[in-house]
Amino acid sequence: MLxxxxxxxxxxxxxxxxxxxxxxxxxxLDSDSAVQQMVRSLDDYYKNFVVDxxxxxxxxxxxxxxxxxxxxxxxxADVDGNGLTDLLITGSHYNKSKVICVLDMGDSxxxxxxxxxxxxxxxxxxxxxxxxxxxxAYSDYYKPFLITEPLxxxxxxxxLLTYRFGGLxxxxxxxxxxxVDSLLYASHFVYHEVEEIAIRIGPQDSVTYHSxxxxxxxxxxxxxxxxxxxxxxxxxxxxxxxxxYLQPDKLKREYQVGYNxxxxxxxxxxxxDGRHLQVDDKGGIxxxxxxxxxxxxxxxxxxxxxxxxxx
Length: 311
Known about the structure:
Helix content: 10-25%
Largest sheet: 8 strands, mixed
Strand content: 35-45%
């Protein structure tokens, strides 16, 4: 009897140990200080990041909003669906509210920055559930010109996010499965230098890549590159799945941010079922799904084998 009891206890402890290991590195964090230390250890950029469950901010509009919407400083959930605990965190970075999500990928912790916060203001994020699936309800505001100005309701943008395609993207419960007839992506960015990129994907996944760079004040130093290739099957699958996950009917045809020195992006997609998606995006943050697509298209320059385009 004692032997059987001992075996039972051993199996129970082994089960608990396996479960704890499966939940990952973030599951055991249980205090503001522990969460704060973890964030600061991931990136020197966040060495001043503050986690405080009281959500105290210099900007009292932000503090009142978080209190009214019952925002938590940090929440645990398996956001990416890999069986490991992730963390959604609302903190303070240089006295401004900031939302980040830390994902446990098993061999590493990955920090999702919600990069649109650079142009937007007062991010609001919480974990919500679609059945048993955890999603992130995220919103932010136009930046007020003065700290005394109210947060305008009509300046609020809201998103329901899931982790797909290597990042956060608007949740789509019923993605389509339609062939893409053609895609054109063009990006134009100007600061000290001009950077132009145009990617065309046509029949049989043939791709052309055109890029030019030159100093703003010396166009004579303009350097251009024209390449072509055929997408690998993996790249083709990633692109088609992501394009089908987008919801064209819910996207606006024009986006813009009120800042200089941002990319001007034009995107046109023709689906085989007759649908078309045309977007002009000044700033490149029109939606989370569009942002993921831009990054995937930009990455083709390094991920594919190119040859000089035929003249």
